[in-house]
Amino acid sequence: MAARLIDGKAAAAALRARVGGLAAMFEAATGRRAGLATVLVGEDPASSVYIRSKRSATGEAGMESIHHALPADTSEAEVLALVETLNADPAIDGILVQLPLPSHIDAARVIDTIDPDKDVDGFHVVNAGRLAVGDPAALVPCTPLGCLHLLRAELGKLTGYHAVVIGRSNIVGKPMASLLLGESCTVTITHSHTRDLPEICRSADILVAAVGRPEMVKTDWIKPGATVIDVGINRVPGAEPGKTRLVGDVAFAEAAEVAGAITPVPGGVGPMTIAMLLRNTLVAAHRRAGLPQPEGL
Ligand SMILES: NC(=O)C1=CN([C@@H]2O[C@H](COP(=O)(O)OP(=O)(O)OC[C@H]3O[C@@H](n4cnc5c(N)ncnc54)[C@H](OP(=O)(O)O)[C@@H]3O)[C@@H](O)[C@H]2O)C=CC1
Ligand SMILES: Nc1nc(=O)c2c([nH]1)NC[C@@H]1CN(c3ccc(C(=O)N[C@@H](CCC(=O)O)C(=O)O)cc3)C=[N+]21
Predict the structure, then answer these.
(1) Residue 248 CB–ligand 2 contact under 6 Å
(2) Which residue of 149, 194, 222, 234 pairs with 214 in a disulfide if CB–CB is 3.0 to 4.6 A?
(3) Which residues bind NADP(+) per the record (predicted)?
(4) pTM (2 d.p.)
């Protein structure tokens, strides 16, 4: 393997430690802990695992984690009412409603009920708009923010690089493209209707794959020396029957022969998402308390 391995797990651990130190200072200054409310509707096993790791990371960082587990048949009105209660609760700085929601609940409606200043996922249209116009008040979605953090650590200033983003979802692809544009990259956004995708990818200095297709990006899609960020989390059948393993949207082993640097799956972007959730919660807490945002967040 020629590429440098971008260690998201280590970067996330460092960020979490920094957030933990600042969370203790927040508590000393305000007499209360920053608080993150999580809401899970139903019992999707993957969602339950994610919520567990988010909650334990929150506690480890010295923040309060308040969880609401609702049965799968909870009505949309009940979820909206819970969000309103959390909006009004002064002890809650961040609200995360785990996605996907059951199909009888309109996720957009739920997200748009969250107070934008408690929207630590950065999914509310107000935060999407703030990000699009470059307003620093934006709470930015955790996954693209984590990708940007890794890119900056790897490359320093990103000015002038050609960045290609595969995927245009509201939670990953679009905000990723906005962030890269904000860093003065030349940005190409691609999706399922893009023609000549491999060729476009080959022109990327920075390639971000957020597709949800296991190992779609092959070695000949990558410009030699490019920095490759793999957002994909795909569970595929493992070596032993009945077992599964996690792979990204990039064919890691072959891509690593060509890339300059690459994130692994697991241990790349995933851990950064959780670290950024803690970061966003602490940022929201400082703003709500009228405190300046601390350096290094
Ligand atoms: N590491 C982490 O913390 C996180 C990881 N993820 C993972 O990232 C991946 C993407 O997530 P998300 O953005 O929510 O997914 P979505 O399904 O919402 O979006 C996928 C995007 O990929 C595009 N796409 C699909 N097939 C192709 C194709 N053959 N060629 C080019 N583009 C294609 C779609 O295009 P179109 O718009 O035209 O349909 C769409 O824009 C998933 O694997 C998910 O599990 C997600 C969130 C957090
Ligand atoms: N409201 C909301 N906000 C989210 O941020 C959100 C969500 N809903 N729904 C689901 C997706 C997915 N997501 C991940 C978080 C951490 C890892 C992560 O830590 N992954 C580990 C591996 C975990 C494993 O082994 O399964 C890794 O990549 O190393 C992955 C994916 C957040 N999401």
Answers:
(1) no
(2) 234
(3) 167-169, 233
(4) 0.98
